[in-house]
Amino acid sequence: MQQAHQLDATFAALADPTRRAILARLAKGEASVMELAGPFDMSQPAISKHLRVLERAGLISRSRDRQRRPCRLEAKPLAEADASLERYRQIWEANFRRLDALLEEMTAQRKPVKIEKGRRKP
Amino acid sequence: MQQAHQLDATFAALADPTRRAILARLAKGEASVMELAGPFDMSQPAISKHLRVLERAGLISRSRDRQRRPCRLEAKPLAEADASLERYRQIWEANFRRLDALLEEMTAQRKPVKIEKGRRKP
Q1: CA of A4: which chain B residue's CA is closest?
Q2: CB-CB under 8 Å, B81 with A85
Q3: Which residues of B touch A82 (CB under 8 A)?
Q4: B71-118 per-position pLDDT tens digit
Q5: Is the confidence metric ipTM above 0.90 for this complex?
Q6: Regions of chain A where pLDDT drops below 50
Q7: CA distance B15 to B5
Q8: How far is it, in rounded angstroms, from Cα B61 to Cα A48?
Q9: Which of A1, A6, A7, A11 to mutate to test the interface with B (most CBs of B within 10 A)?
């Protein structure tokens, strides 16, 4: 899959709370469809549909073990999606730094606090 | 917007290359629709449609300045989407660590290298 198409597929797959919960479960280790369906109060076909979306997007793979076919997380496309958010991270970190600087300035402008028995009052 | 719905909207908005490119442009600073449409070889209505998706998802805001209405990036939902990928990050970092350990082991098992005039041959 081309990188732009892979990102489209990754983000589209992530745009659903059940699929995010399935990925979170698989982050802890492999699981079968039965095991995945358990906590969701969802039919196995409904879970299977979500698994097909995740598998097509390359976010999970399924073992060839025909009895159980456990699903496992494929972290690479998630790492790529995360890396693509990197350029925005600089923006929000700059925002946080501005906020920190503002708070420091406000603190510096405050009157000296009264120290009482070694305990500083807010 | 509830957090799960916000994440749905954020990831759905990110699942398109034009919208990701618009966000990347806005990460550098405010821009008008005209300025955004320029590099995309796309009509202004097409760009406006993408902007509406981004605005509904809360990823951009538009100034009330009626003449130009510049768009700006709203980093908070992107920071939340990034944070939600945190739990998978542990998985791929563990994968990288395993790979590093394997490489180190392979290097340690190699025969001693021949040093020639202070230059180490691979």
Answers
A1: B17
A2: yes
A3: 82, 85, 88-89
A4: 999 988 998 898 888 878 777 777 777 778 888 888 888 756 555 555
A5: no
A6: 120-122
A7: 15
A8: 38
A9: A11
Structure tokens at A36: 């995945």
Q: What are phi and psi of A67, to 5 degrees?
A: -70, -45
The Cα A47–Cα A38 span in angstroms is 10
Q: Phi and psi of B116, rounded to 5°?
A: -125, 115
State phi, psi for A121 to the nearest 5 degrees. Answer: -85, 145
How many beta carbons lie within 10 A of that of residue A106, not counting itself?
Answer: 9
Beta bridge partners of A31: A71
pTM reported for the whole predicted model: 0.76
CB atoms within 10 A of CB A61: 14
Over residues A42-67, the pLDDT tens digits come to: 888 899 999 999 999 999 999 876 67
